[in-house]
Amino acid sequence: MSDIAHFFSPVNTDNILNSYSLKETQMGKLFSIYHKQDDFPDLEDIHIALIGVCEDRNSENNEGCKLAPDAVREFLYKLYDTGFSSKIADLGNINAGHTTEDTFFALRITVDNLIRKNIIPVIIGGSQDLTYAQFLGYKDLEQTINVVAIDSLFDLGDPDAEITSNSYLGKIILHQPNYLFNYSNIGYQTYLVDQNSLQMMNRLYFDVYRLGQIRDKIEEAEPIIRQSDMISFDISSIKHSDAPANPNASPNGFYSEEACQIMRYAGMNDKLSSIGIYEINPKFDESGKTAHLAAQMIWCFFDGFYNRKNDFPSRTNPDYIRFHVVLQDDKYEINFYKSKKSDRWWMEIPYPPHKDLKFERHTLIPCSYKDYELAISNEIPDRWWQTYQKLS
């Protein structure tokens, strides 16, 4: 039995499916599911592991989101497979511990354990403060990481107060030792965000993108997501009419189709090693609409994962086209790399010789053709400049 099995309780598939008879090609038939005590799934050859976390004691105005994991499973199990489900395990639920710290500990150890086995944890919360436990799962992996949140808020909170679903990011930023290299927010809504918080994001050279910026051209989310090691997706970033199962949701937000596209981009990210979807509250759901959407989002993540291109560039690989751009009277030089396999782009940041080697993995950053167009127009792309400042 796995050394994390004791954290989990089995899935009650009879209650979830409620007499529904699954076909052989539906996911609930093909997943390796922990549904019987002492029969924890064998993780050998597993690529992705579903984890429910039934914890909401730190939620802000969203008590009841701990019920989300089984609500999502009801719809996920009924979706049809396209050839990947046999490599996916459902490990069951981490139930709320005696304290929230106990729950965090169980999730942290689980994330660490699975990443070391090259298995991607897909976490179904629970409240979004669990993102901090997800982050702590990287603590002993000896690398700096990039965190991406799909969220209408920054969730900085008061660093001196107890952690809540609206303050987990402040805890991540201040954590010592510091292994956060970059944070990116996708979809913040300006009228919901304090301007002092926005200024702080700029001072820290973090990447933050307004909802309108991303919705104007959803493809521009792809390189942001491709940079991430871990992702936290707050369901309230989706507009209330598309995902009503959250009392904090706004009338504005991403459409359901855009949320699914973002999740597919996440699945296709070769370096992503964990993802969590948080804040779904079945108490507020209308006919299971949000749980159904979350199931489809997870399906899109699976689909993206099994369509990964594995084309992260090396500087000498002939499968890439290299473009050398000189800007601002020879003051800056940028090397761009375009994959012949996927048409995806990266750009290179010069690595200062005095810098610790732990940051070297961040010198090739994802970008888009738009960044290349800016460079040949003698403009420095924002994401290049932000990373350059952090490495200088």
Structure description:
The protein has about 400 residues and is of the alpha/beta class. It folds into 2 domains: about 5-305, Ureohydrolase domain (Arginase, Chain A), CATH 3.40.800; about 320-390, no CATH class. Helix content is about 30%, strand content about 20%. The protein contains 13 helices and 14 strands. The protein has helices spanning about 15, 25-30, 70-75, 100-115, 130-135, 170-175, 195-205, 210-215, 220-225, 255-270, 290-305, 370-375, 380-390, and strands at about 10, 30-35, 50-55, 90-95, 120-125, 145-150, 180-190, 205-210, 230-235, 275-280, 320-325, 330-340, 345-350, 365. The strands form 2 sheets. Strands 1, 2, 3, 4, 5, 6, 7, 8, 9 and 10 form a 10-stranded mixed β-sheet that branches. It has a 4-stranded antiparallel β-sheet with strand order 11-12-13-14. Helix 4 packs across helix 5 (about 130-135), helix 5 (about 130-135) packs parallel to helix 6 and helix 10 (about 255-270) runs parallel beside helix 11 (about 290-305). The longest helix is centred in the N-terminal third of the chain and has 17 residues, at about 100-115. The termini are far apart. About 45% of the residues are buried. The model has no long low-confidence stretch (mean pLDDT about 95).
What structural keywords apply?
single chain; Arginase, Chain A; alpha/beta
In short:
With 392 residues, the chain is α/β, with parallel strands linked by helices.
**Overall 3D shape:** globular
What is the SS-derived class? alpha/beta
Share of helical residues: 25-40%
- Briefly note the CATH topology name of the largest domain: Arginase, Chain A
SSE string, helices as H and strands as E: EHHEEHEHEHEHEHEHHEHEHEEEEHH
Q: What is the mean pLDDT?
A: 95
Strand fraction equals: 15-25%
Could you give the count of β-strands? 14
Give the total of domains. 2
CATH class of the largest domain: Alpha Beta
From the N-terminal CA to the C-terminal CA, the straight-line distance is 47 Å
